[in-house]
Every structure is written in C-alpha cells, then in structure tokens.
Specification:
The longest helix has 26 residues. The protein contains three helices and two strands, in the order H-E-E-H-H. It has a two-stranded antiparallel ribbon.
Length: 113
Amino acid sequence: MPWAQWIACFFGGVFFTNAVPHLVRGVTGQPFQTPFAKPSGKGLSSSSVNVVWGWFNLVLAYALLFRAGDFDIHAAGHVAAFGLGILLMGLMSAHLFGPLHGGSRPQQPGATG
C-alpha cells in the first residue's frame, strides 16, 4: 500500500473519531469544546455548533477514506491505519478533555467527590 494511502486511512480514522463526541453532544443538546470556543478547545460551544463541527469531521473522514484514498474494508493495511487513527485520536482526546470533564480521576464506587 502506498504511503499516501496509509496517511489517508489514518487521518480518516482521526476525523471519524473526532466527529463522534461532537455529534453526540450536539444532538443531545449539550455544549462541548470546539476550536471556535473561547478559549479554543477549553470553552464550550453550543450544541448546534457541535453538530456542524461533527458533520464537517465526517465529511473530511469520507473524503480521506473514499476520495483521496481507496479504502477497502477487506484490506488489513487499510483497516489497521484507520484503526490506529481512531485509537490515537481517542487517547489524545481522553488526555486533553478528561481534566475538563472529570475523566482523569475516576471515582471508586461509593466514593464521594
């Protein structure tokens, strides 16, 4: 697989993963961080902004996977690069946003905050 195909699959996974929290928070009417908030990445954007941002990330994922690349679900290399993009973006998001939402310090059952 050419290196450009790997990159397209990897970043397709990155943008696909980034779409998920924005769409979920947006369609449930909850604010969430976006690059457009003040301060960027820490302040909250409206649910409508999150729906649009999530949709835009899905469009980018689609373009990278099926237009820039030629994603084949049966090709192990394509799936591995896509999966690696998902994993790394998920870990990075957990690290960056966990402190903002209490995810960095999970509580034990029965513990009080």
